[in-house]
Amino acid sequence: MPNSERLLVLLRHGQSDWNLKNLFTGWRDPDLSPTGVEEATEAGRRLKAQGLTFDVAYTSALTRAQHTLALTLAALDQTGLPEHRDQALNERHYGDLCGLNKDDARKKWGEEQVHLWRRSYDVPPPGGESLKDTVARALPYYCQHILPDVLRGKRVLVAAHGNSLRALVMVLDRLTPETIPSMELATGVPLVYRLNADSTVASKDVLTA
User: Fold this and answer.
1) Residue 121, annotated ligand binder?
2) 9 by DSSP, 3-state: which?
């Protein structure tokens, strides 16, 4: 089977209303901002320009990821694609930080503490998840559902969140707990992976403008 048939595209949702307002979002459920709507549509245009089509899609239980997927598929002329939604792909849960302005959080807890919560691998915010916790729920879902589809030759699109996708990128790009916290995923920018038969990465393309 050629690599081109083992296609996996990861897409962080477009900018949400709360991204725009600089709020910790987590499992809260704001929709896309007007910019986010355009980012999601543009992601579909870029994928279409590459001649890519899909057989199945995965997304989270949150509106901003689902809306991104719908807009991207519309731009690809692929509405009605089989779609699986699961909270295993939800954004990291920020606990007590959810809904707070990031600048206000820094004033309350201090710059160093908030930075530790946001950028460490295994230190969770109060009542929330660390990146390690997010990996612990997103990665098994990937191994049990998404990866088998890819290895069977299905072309798979995953529209999810910065941290749940970082969990997948950590494995695909062979990053470590030391290097993954500093890795950023831009909103609305598709990561196009082609996998080998042993699930390792044959190629990776980042479809920036």
Assistant:
1) no
2) strand
* CATH number of residue 142's parent domain: 3.40.50.1240
Beta bridge partners of residue 191, listed in sequence order: 10, 206
Q: Is 14 annotated for ligand binding?
A: yes
Is there a catalytic annotation at residue 67? no
Q: Which of 42, 91, 129, 161 does the annotation list as catalytic?
A: 91
For residue 133, the one-letter residue type is D
- Residues 179-190: tens digit of each pLDDT: 988 889 999 999
Confidence of residue 76 (pLDDT cuts 50, 70, 90): very high
Q: Report yes or no on whether pTM surpasses 0.90.
A: yes
Beta strand pairing status for 201-206 and 83-85?
unpaired
**Domain of 12?**
3-206
* Residue 91 annotated in ligand binding: yes
Asked if 45 and 75 touch (Cβ cutoff 8 Å), the reply is yes
Distance CA(27)–CA(48), nearest Å, equals 30
For 20, other C-beta atoms within 10 Å of its C-beta total 14
Provide the token pair at 39. Answer: 């980012």
Q: Token pair of 124, please? A: 């969770």
Q: Is 84 helix (H, G, I), strand (E, B) or coil?
A: strand
Q: Is 102 annotated as a binding residue?
A: yes
Is 13 marked as a binding-site residue?
Answer: yes
Our answer to whether residue 91 is catalytic in this structure is yes
Determine which one of 13, 39, 129, 161 is catalytic: 13
